[in-house]
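Dear support,

We are seeing what looks like truncated structure output for some complexes. This example has four components. We would appreciate it if you could run it in full and send us the complete token output so we can diff it against ours.
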Amino acid sequence: MGTSIAELITDRMDAMPAGERRAAQTLIANYPLAGLKTVADFSQHAGVSSPTILRFVARLGFHNYAEFQATLQHELAAQLQSPLSRTERQSGHRGEEPAMLAATLDNIRETFGHVSPRQMDEIVALLAHPRASIHLIGGRFTDPIARYMAAHMTIIRPAVFHLSGQESNWRDRLIDMGRRDVLFVFDIRRYQDSLLQLAETAHKRGIQIVLVTDQWLSPIARFARHVVAGRTAVPSAWDSSAALFVFAEALIGELTRRLESESAKRIGELETLRKG
Amino acid sequence: MGTSIAELITDRMDAMPAGERRAAQTLIANYPLAGLKTVADFSQHAGVSSPTILRFVARLGFHNYAEFQATLQHELAAQLQSPLSRTERQSGHRGEEPAMLAATLDNIRETFGHVSPRQMDEIVALLAHPRASIHLIGGRFTDPIARYMAAHMTIIRPAVFHLSGQESNWRDRLIDMGRRDVLFVFDIRRYQDSLLQLAETAHKRGIQIVLVTDQWLSPIARFARHVVAGRTAVPSAWDSSAALFVFAEALIGELTRRLESESAKRIGELETLRKG
DNA sequence: CCAAAAACGTAACAATCGATACAGCGCGCG
DNA sequence: CGCGCGCTGTATCGATTGTTACGTTTTTGG
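Here is the complete output from our reference environment:
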């Protein structure tokens, strides 16, 4: 479906009989609403008879009127989803977004503004290494984001682990990790001491650490190979982790693209596993 | 033309019966295309019967379905012809944000555009009830968001539980829940059957269900008191849960404000507990 | 806890829709 | 000038639509 119906029509309009051309013109004139009404309405509005409308539609390559309308609606749906001008059209009580929402959006933009494509690439490269194992963990409020990443990464590559449960268990896991492996940590203030100790121990063992933190930088930054500082300040009693979350999603997306060829086979196997 | 239909709906949605509210939600979720199809399509998509759709339309003040559709089309026509030509929506009008980031930001804005302050208020009121217990759960990828909410809510109010572990345990937890309690569910496609069954059982027990889903609406919407439809589509192999996450944060913020007086004491006690 | 009211779905109806067959009209080539 | 082909409108049929009545279920109020 490369071309829209509008282009299709203007292309072929010259090669049409008079009646069908009138149909085409009225459709273009108020596109695409004329095509969403009934055949009778359409025909009357164009000043032709109903069969002419149907012949016109058939000439465009559709098997019946319903198929034509369906295509038109899909096209329209795609258009309506991108811009958000809809809700603020009339009598803008929507003059300003809620302060918290605006701040969150700014945070996200700001966060991405400070992450260079090169850094992104390097982090993805670390996570994409086929022989590396990836261990994710977060703090009290950020651990869910670590889980979110783990849930996706488990699907596209092997050896992905989320460090959950007792803190003493974390340390024990370190024994399985080496220089090529990655410890992916989320830590925002108030920074958790337990995470710092884990990171320090991991660092001593030569494990690669990727840290996602806030703009004041967790002390773990000292041991990290890569540090991503997200903005978290919002007009609320809490800090916002939204920017970190979106960054995690971006990372997942990039990683998926990079691993596309290798993970395709894996995903297929997973599908059959689930159904079996 | 004073008010648009969308506003009309969000205004009156609270005063509607369950079935008609579901119709309203599906119409808002993908506005206004759902209303331009046939009654049968609309009803099936909303999971209700055709007469319910007609009653819904009648409640909005229209004499028949045709009149409703006509109004919807006029509204759409005015919107399509006004501002930007629709052909140049594709090319980069911004300062070169990555496509995925731009899509995510749009999704967030769009999602909040569809949530009325009133609905927000009602959800917060449910979560703020001092005698209610709150149980949160999510699907494969969204459960981390449920955890994130739970982590915050636990601090500002009692009786907050995240349903984790074996699926069979979820059901057993239902035994502690009654009419005043809340089951807060995240569910995006591919919708999980286990969550649906949980929600159905909970609904039969009269438990209030708040559902955060995607724009295609999880089948759980059928049992939910409140449905929030977030946008999840991004140019990636995955869907994006960022909008749901930000919504969760907004909910946490609002809830905190509402409970400020009651939770202050609680937070103080927690502080001393941690240090003690 | 029970009675009254509201809401919902099933089933049937009539109106309307999309689709097809057929006949009249206009146009161009021989 | 007349013959034939393509385009168009009228008439018609079956399918689908919107709509209504009715019985069951759910919710509300006392």
